[in-house]
Every structure is written in structure tokens, then in C-alpha cells.
Amino acid sequence: LRLASSELIEIIARSNLDLSSKLQGSLVENLNDNLRQPHENIQRASTKALRCFLHTYFPIKTCASQRLQDLTVSKYMEGLRAEQNVAITRGYTLALGSLPAKLVLLPEGKFFEVFDLLQDYARQDKLIMGEPDIETRRNALEAMIELVERMRPFIGKTLDVSIYAKLFQILFAACEDYSVDKRGDTGSWCR
Fold this sequence. Notes:
Elements: H1 2-15, H2 21-35, H3 40-57, H4 66-71, H5 73-82, H6 86-98, H7 101-105, H8 110-121, E1 127-128, E2 131-132, H9 134-151, H10 162-174
Antiparallel strand pairs: 1-2
Helix pairs in contact: 1-2, 1-3, 2-3, 3-6, 5-6, 6-9, 8-9, 9-10
């Protein structure tokens, strides 16, 4: 049912149906709830729907409201900092990568807060509930790549070109991930 609700919200966004602000907020909250689920297919469907929904209903030409910031960027960042539940850290790292540029660029410095938080979760020594979590690490790497790709028009203007060097340094470090657990060579998920 959660997978279906995420796919329905994505279809609504792709159809660009006329929705009230209250309903838009409610649908984002539904996707946020789905991001907290322990099933990867639900988290990925919710991330895909969130990406589409935010780009459709909150276009770049308008400034992001504080309510939207609270529903998305702030919620995901605070959730990552406070949570010790791997399902939530996995979902929220994916969600941070799906955010539109305007939500991550304003206020000034927000992009680097998001990027640094994702970098922290991409570290091999990052523990969640006392255990390393390869899925959160992989999702953080994917999110950083997607985020920097989305920021490309702003690099050299709002953002410094050095962000590429920082990202490549993180990706090269991930190439050295040879973690192994009961599932085998899980480090390859980051490589």
C-alpha cells in the first residue's frame, strides 16, 4: 500500500494536477512517512515521488517557504542527526539527494550543511546503533552525487568549483571500501 501511495503521488506530480497548498503539504508528509519504512523499494519509490513532486509543485522561480523547509530539508537533517534507526537514516539520506536546488541553496550555507552531513554518513567508520550500515553509506554517496549534479548550474556562481574536488575525494575513499558482512562483499555497493 505504501509503495502504491508513493507511485500515485508521483503520477499526480507528473500530471501536474491542481492541488491546494494543504493537500500538497499532506502528500509531502505522506512521502516523509514512507521514507521511514524499512523496505528499500518503498524508500526508493518515495524518493522518486518526492523528487518529482517538489520539482512540479514548488518550482525554482518561487522562494521556498519556511514550512516547506521544515517539511523537507530541516526534517531530514534533524532526523539524520538524532536517529539511531537504520531505516530512517537510509530513507532520509536518499531524500536529501532528491531535493531541488532552491531548497538546498537557501539560506546561504545550507548546501554545505547538507553536503557535510551526507559526507559524515558516507564514512566507513560511521556507526548507527553501534553498527556500520552499508546501505546508509551507499545512499549517502548516491545522494551526494545527485545533489552536486543538480547544483551544476550554480557551481562557479553560488557554489565554488572546489565542490567537485571534495566530491571526488569522497568517491575515491569509497572505492577503498572492502567491507564484508554476512551478506558478503558489501563494500562493493559503495565502490
